[in-house]
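One such given next:

>
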Amino acid sequence: MTNETSSFEARVLVFREDSRWTALALEMDVRGYGSDSEAAVHDLCDMLLAHVSFAVQQGHPESVWRRADEKYWQIFEEARRDLFVAKMSGSELPLEPIADIVPLSLVAMKHREEWTAARA
């Protein structure tokens, strides 16, 4: 069995929709949901793990790349800018939306032509 460690970073926008939180991986247009922002990001990581694992199993890892709608990219850029300005000026940090870069570490294990992915 061969273990290959690979990782990538995903741009994640976290925002509130009614009473729940949504975490959106912009490069892959995959969402996670939760009762708070941390739960939404955790759910998103689980969804990305399943998404990547399935794509690898099917032999089409490139299929995970599907750009989210442009409006979410614009919100992400504005939120990153607002966070930067708040940190540099010493003003209060914005509560939402949250724009972050989330590192995702995946370990792909090949055994008897079967692929699985697991968190490192």
